[in-house]
Amino acid sequence: MNHGIDRYVGCWVSSSGQRLRIYRISDIRASVDFLDSSGAPVVRSYMGDALALSMEANFDDYDGDFEVDLWNKDKGFTLHLNYEHEYDLDESRREALVFSLSRFQKDEFLESFFPLFGPMNHFVRDKKAEQASPPNPVPAALSSRFLLAQEVAPKGSVMR
Fold first, then answer.
1. pLDDT exceeds cutoff 80 at 117
2. What CATH number did the domain enclosing 82 receive?
C-alpha cells in the first residue's frame, strides 16, 4: 500500500465520467489534470478559457490534505481531495478520492462558475487508464518551478 502523496498519484474517474490525472512532483507537490466526461480538459472560463491541465497541488502530510489550485494560490477555486482506502459510500468499497470544492469568500463573482465542474461524485482509481498513461508527463518548467521553490540555500552561500 502506498503512503503520503503516493496514494493520490494516478488516474481517477467518477461515476459521471469526469477524470483526474495526478502526477507526483515531490513529497508535497503534484500536478493535476481535470478532464470532463468526454476526456477533454475542463475549460476554466473564469480564467480566460485556460485548460485544467498541469494545475498545482499541495499535499500536507501532517493533516493528509491534498489541495488543487483551480486558479491561483489564494484566489478562486480550490479542489480538496481526501483519500479513502475502502470508501463506505462506494458500492464496491473501492479505493477512492472524496472531493469538496471551495472558493475564497472575496471571489463572489465565481459563484456562477460552480456548474463548470459538473455533477461530481467521488473518484475511483482507473487502472486501465493508468496502464495507458505515461509515467509523468509534467512539463519540465513546472517541475523545475516546484523543485526550486523547495530548495534552501546552504548557510553562507550566495543565491543568484
1. no
2. 2.40.128
- Report pLDDT digits (tens) over 56-113: 999 998 888 899 998 877 777 888 999 998 888 878 888 999 988 887 777 777 777 7
Distance CA 130, CA 8 (A): 12
* C-alpha angle 101-128-97 in degrees, rounded to nearest 5: 25
Three cell numbers, residue 114: 460552480
| 55, burial (CB in 10 Å: exposed 0-12, middle 13-18, buried 19+) | buried
Angle at Cα 46 formed by Cα 42 and Cα 50, nearest 5°? 50
Contact criterion met (CB below 8 Å) for 29 and 7: no
> 58 lies in a domain?
yes
Q: Supply 97's cell numbers.
A: 478520492
Is residue 65 in some structural domain?
Answer: yes
Return all residues near 129 (Cβ < 8 A) that are at least 6 apart: 11, 13, 19, 21
Asked if 54 contacts 139 with a C-beta cutoff of 8 angstroms, the reply is: yes
Confidence grade of residue 153 (pLDDT, cut at 50, 70, 90): very low
